[in-house]
Design brief:
This protein has about 200 residues and is mainly alpha-helical. It has seven helices and two strands, in the order αββαααααα. It has a two-stranded antiparallel ribbon with strand order 1-2. Helix 5 packs across helix 7 and helix 6 packs antiparallel against helix 7.
Length: about 200
């Protein structure tokens, strides 16, 4: 757009407001000082947002002796500093409910060992007359082999796995077989299978 365009002539401009008469700055509030008080200095701890007006020399003098915590004990100062971290707002510890406080940390749990707490049976469908969806485990190849070694199927409960393990250990232990080395391989396989199932949360 050119500066000599006809559109510039149609633009209306507001009239300039009459400049308000500037007031002279107040005098310094230091006793016996007649200089201009243009520098602000805080009044004190219980008067936030209020300021004294001093000249440059006297504001320096005031700030040298100013102490926000004057009149407070060491314990009150420490409490104030601690609350200042959160902006003096109330805080709560993480996991205030009892169930969250007593539950294991995710970092402490083994893979597959976590089960959802479902007191009302919404997830597992145990509310009312029996489960709506029977829980079926999808086994990995090593887990399926471990169940086969133990002579159990995938729907075996934790107590069934433990009792079967005790039974097989007693049966194949070398001491129970008179030192026969033939059942030693089977004994090792049973122990390894049980440890794998335990690590994956089956028992």
């Amino acid at each position: 757009m050119r500066l000599d365009s006809k559109y510039f002539d149609r633009i209306r401009t507001r009239r300039k407001r009459e400049q308000e008469t500037e007031q002279a700055p107040p005098a310094c509030q230091w006793d016996g000082c007649d200089k201009k008080g243009v520098h602000r200095a805080p009044v004190g701890r219980n008067a936030e947002g209020q300021f004294f007006l001093f000249c440059f020399e006297h504001v320096k003098e005031y700030n040298k002796g100013y102490n926000y915590f004057s009149g407070l004990s060491d314990g009150e100062i420490a409490r104030y500093q601690k609350e200042a971290i959160t902006g003096h707002r109330p805080t709560w510890t993480v996991g205030v409910n009892k169930a969250a406080k007593n539950s294991p940390l995710h970092s402490d749990m083994r893979s597959g060992s976590y089960r959802v707490r479902d007191p009302f049976g919404f997830v597992n469908g145990t509310k009312g007359s029996g489960p709506r969806f029977p829980e079926q485990r999808k086994l990995k190849s090593l887990e399926a082999k471990a169940f086969d070694t133990m002579g159990l199927d995938a729907s075996a409960t934790s107590s069934e796995i433990k009792s079967r393990y005790k039974e097989l250990v007693k049966k194949h232990h070398p001491d129970a077989n008179g030192g026969d080395r033939g059942s030693e391989e089977r004994f090792r396989a049973v122990i390894q299978a049980y440890q794998l199932l335990k690590q994956n949360g089956f028992c």
